[in-house]
Specification:
- By secondary structure, the protein is an alpha/beta fold.
- It contains 16 helices and 16 strands.
- The strands form 2 sheets. Strands 1, 2, 3, 4, 5, 14, 15 and 16 form an 8-stranded mixed sheet that branches.
- The longest helix has 17 residues.
- Bound molecules: 2H-imidazol-4-ylacetic acid and zinc ion (ZN).
- The site of 2H-imidazol-4-ylacetic acid (IZC) has 11 residues, from helix 3.
Amino acid sequence: MKTLIKNIGVLVTPTGNAAKAGEEQSKLYVLHDAYVSLEDGKIVEIGTGMPDNADMAEEVIDACGKLVTPGLVDSHTHLVFGGWREHELALKRRGVPYLEILAQGGGILSTVKMTRRATEEELADKAENVLKEMLALGVTTCEAKSGYGLDTDTELKQLRAIRELSKRQPVELVPTYLGAHAVPTEYKENREAYLQLMEDLLPQIAEEGLAEFCDVFCETGVFTPEESKRILLAAQRYGLRSKIHSDEIDAIGGTEVAGEIRAVSAEHLIAINASGIDALANGGTVAVLLPATSFYLNKPYAPARALVEAGVPVALASDFNPGSCPGFNLQLVMNLGCWKSGLSPEEVLTAVTLNAAAACGRADRIGSVEVGKQADLVIWDAPNLEYIFYRFGENLANTVIKKGKIQYLKG
Ligand code: IZC
Ligand code: ZN
């Protein structure tokens, strides 16, 4: 099927097949009065005015002079979980720290109880509703972590729910195994046995193809850098590439581990220091920053400018989860990236497209509007890139195209 998107006011996209760092992160390809031709789910031609073979198109989408960008990639979410945690609101408003709520058996551990009780079907149905709304906001690819099972059956149940969702709905999912998200209550006195249990699950996850990445929550009172390294290296032996939650609250060395083991991404980084920044620059690791979590936890914002200046590629993601970020609006994350993290609109666009695709191991296939890449695009209710940073709080996505097909059209 041949599709023509005509009358594009301005096409704005990063280019290339790998993450962009330093000054490169702000360099975008800009084409006014453009068209894009799609065929069999891929981008086949880009130009100005109208193509010579315009009458060959079976479907014509009129962009009506609007802005077009790549589809957005949300590279860090805890998409699949049971229940919510609104009962923690009063505690949070009183200033009880996130890690203290967890240490008291709440936080992640309360979501674990609700996730264990839910069926795979219930988990998938709930996440499907979220994905539908994410898609309407322009998100065409979404990373999704396990980590609310903390036992063999429930971790597998979460990963199978993600696999089921990949078949049922159009947002492309990137599954990540996060068995080392917290030590469950029943293993509190026996961390070693818990780590072993999570390691023992790796062969089955690999055999069933249930995850592409392994992630660990490396934080004070959760997992140490040594434990994180052990799990991530074990997962690498089964073909799972590495991600790490590090420096969210304290800089305890997780980011240095990320660089050392050449993790694909290190995520959060609110408390990152100079040695962490060096480690990421040397490891070729993408820094995935989560400014909506800073907003929600009343924390500082990760030092995005220092990372860009050190030559570390920066991505921005939602961190959607029921505790520290119960919202998934990546457009709001883009605003925060601009207004609170100090990135320019150009840097932010790269951060939620090409660099986010790199954090998901997909920069060769998605993350930019270029001939040969998958046809994932957003037509915005905006005349230019600046406009989507100038406005906030409304959904400015007008048309969302995944693999060449319109999957969302504003009503
Ligand atoms: O459920 O609190 N930070 N993991 C690490 C989370 C936030 C998710 C949660
Ligand atoms: Zn997270």
